[in-house]
């Protein structure tokens, strides 16, 4: 089989909740130095995807980590591996501030159930497709490669 060249990830449907900040009542809201200082300490929620591959004899080796950019839900993003990979197993692990993301708000829910710790929209299930590069003469000879 051909060596793996990279993967396609369909962007997540989870959204980042809007950050709200209420300044202390004793501060001047027009004071630029206070606003600047507060902005410096609010960090963006960033997600990374760590890719590992099974290498002989039975060790998982980290191939690369990719910072995921913000994009509209369902947008395909392509990532090349640093080198071609020949492996029977490739694993993908989502890292970063996953708790800062939430699912798209739906109708108000009066059931009293708490929201899950991790948004279901961050699931990697059926979002990743592996790809390889080949000569034009080999097109269609290999089955589609996918990840679950």
UniProtKB/TrEMBL annotation:
Coiled coil: none annotated. Residues 1-148 form the SAC9 C-terminal domain. InterPro entries: SAC9_C. This is SAC9 C-terminal domain-containing protein. It comes from Citrus sinensis.
């Amino acid at each position: 089989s051909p060596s793996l060249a990279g993967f396609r990830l369909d962007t997540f449907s989870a959204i980042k909740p809007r950050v709200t900040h209420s300044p202390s009542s004793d501060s001047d809201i027009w004071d630029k130095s206070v606003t600047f200082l507060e902005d410096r300490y609010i960090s963006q929620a960033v997600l990374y995807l760590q890719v590992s591959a099974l290498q002989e004899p039975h060790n998982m080796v980290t191939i690369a980590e990719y910072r995921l950019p913000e994009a509209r839900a369902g947008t395909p993003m392509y990532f090349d591996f640093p080198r071609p990979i020949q492996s029977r197993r490739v694993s993908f692990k989502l890292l970063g501030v996953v708790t800062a993301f939430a699912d798209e708000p739906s109708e108000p829910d009066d059931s009293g159930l708490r929201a899950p710790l991790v948004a279901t929209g961050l699931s990697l299930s059926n979002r990743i497709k592996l790809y390889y590069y080949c000569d034009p003469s080999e097109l269609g000879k290999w089955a589609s490669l996918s990840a679950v």
